[in-house]
């Protein structure tokens, strides 16, 4: 199961992210949240996690999720999380971004993408913020094509967005209702005649006419337009501009023609009770078909036993034959509940005996100065430089405080 959330947060900071991720049924295996107009300084965003990313990680890590990648371009962000159990089954995580603002020179508009092979199936997630204003429909259509033509993923079996087995396209697409006047839109919303209004939706028209998003599907829209509200209310724009409400925020999907894949959408709705922005968040849950026998972990750890705080710890593992390894591969020690691959307590370089060829009986040593001084449950992860991701995860194990250390502490 996969859950997608898109929200134009209108330069606001997170108050409570938990409602964004609530869903009926079994918890999702993958969660992607795409934001537009996120706050933050673009100059520091490369170094520091944005406030929305931090809030999402804190909430989701407590529920067993690990952030596998973030891609951002100014105020457009995409965070992707997976359940820990799926981490070693993911390969070839790649990212891309495309600027479309100011003729392609500015990143206030455009797209950020995260793609991966999930159990051997290629999945692409693209978060976009297209040109604003009703009269810019042709520009939005041009931006769609510019994004699909520009983004490339070298070394992946799916080298472009449209070559992926599953594509999920989310974001503030900014398509408006036209030609229809303000009063007619408001009356239709009041009467709940959404399907009548959607006849004037620029995105639906572009799809029907084959101008953009050809081959993409969208669930039935049974929720009210998601833009533009007076902040903090469910009242549509009362400013002098009186912008017509529209379904700017969308979640679409596409499967690659000729492939034997299946997808089911379980829900598609807006979260209109969340009022801090002038947009409502939109969320959707899917199930997709995967072959769980593919992309098995490439590194297998032996069970870890008898680790104690302040004492050296030994980890043994084996590497699958014929996979590329490197002197830059490393093994991280993580507290159970860690947030992302760089959230390790410490790390050591991988055993050189495994470099270049598969080998059983590889071993690494964690020296006492780098061992945790806090007892608890930990796990090991093998980071592959070649694959640029984690390719092996140990079972959780306990690090205990030694009797000698406990006695010393009691004496103090």
Automatic annotation (TrEMBL):
Domain Inositol polyphosphate-related phosphatase: 1-294
InterPro entries according to UniProt: Endo/exonu/phosph_ase_sf, IP5, IPPc, SKICH
Gene Ontology biological-process entries: phosphatidylinositol dephosphorylation
UniProt GO MF annotations: phosphatase activity
Superkingdom classification of source: Eukaryota
Family the UniProt entry places it in: Belongs to the inositol 1,4,5-trisphosphate 5-phosphatase type II family.
Designated name of the protein: Inositol polyphosphate-related phosphatase domain-containing protein
């Amino acid at each position: 199961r996969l859950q997608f959330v898109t929200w134009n947060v209108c330069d606001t900071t997170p108050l409570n992210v938990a409602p964004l991720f609530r869903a009926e049924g079994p918890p999702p295996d993958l969660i992607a949240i795409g934001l537009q107009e996120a706050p933050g300084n673009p100059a520091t965003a490369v170094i520091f996690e944005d406030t929305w990313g931090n809030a999402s990680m804190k909430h989701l890590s407590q529920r067993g999720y690990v952030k596998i990648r973030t891609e951002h371009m100014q105020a457009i962000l995409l965070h992707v999380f997976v359940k820990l159990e799926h981490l070693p089954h993911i390969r070839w995580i790649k990212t891309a971004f495309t600027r479309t603002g100011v003729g392609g020179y500015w990143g206030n508009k455009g797209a950020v993408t995260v793609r991966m092979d999930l159990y051997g199936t290629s999945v692409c997630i693209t978060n976009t913020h297209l040109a604003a204003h009703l009269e810019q429909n042709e520009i939005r259509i041009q931006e769609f094509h510019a994004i699909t033509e520009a983004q490339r993923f070298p070394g992946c079996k799916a080298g472009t967005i449209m070559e992926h087995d599953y594509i999920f396209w989310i974001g503030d697409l900014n398509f408006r209702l036209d030609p229809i006047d303000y009063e007619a839109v408001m009356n239709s919303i009041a009467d709940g005649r959404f399907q009548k209004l959607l006849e004037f939706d620029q995105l639906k028209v572009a799809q029907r006419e084959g101008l953009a998003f050809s081959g993409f599907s969208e669930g039935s829209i049974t929720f009210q337009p998601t833009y533009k509200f007076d902040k903090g209310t469910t009242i549509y724009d009362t400013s002098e501009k009186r912008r017509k409400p529209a379904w700017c925020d969308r979640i679409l999907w596409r499967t690659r023609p000729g492939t034997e894949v299946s997808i089911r959408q379980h829900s598609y709705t807006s979260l209109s009770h969340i009022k801090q922005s002038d947009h409502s968040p939109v969320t959707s849950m899917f199930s997709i078909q995967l072959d769980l026998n593919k992309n098995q972990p490439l590194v297998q750890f032996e069970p870890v036993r008898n680790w104690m705080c302040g004492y050296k710890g030994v980890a043994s593992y084996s590497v699958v034959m014929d996979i590329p390894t490197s002197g830059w591969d490393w093994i991280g020690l993580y507290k159970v509940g860690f947030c992302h691959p760089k959230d390790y307590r410490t790390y050591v370089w991988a055993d050189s005996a495994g470099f270049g060829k598969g080998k059983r009986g590889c071993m690494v040593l964690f020296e006492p100065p780098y061992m945790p001084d806090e007892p608890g449950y930990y796990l090991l992860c093998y980071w592959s430089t070649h694959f640029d991701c984690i390719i092996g995860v140990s079972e959780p194990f306990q690090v205990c405080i030694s009797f000698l250390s406990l006695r010393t502490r009691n004496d103090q």
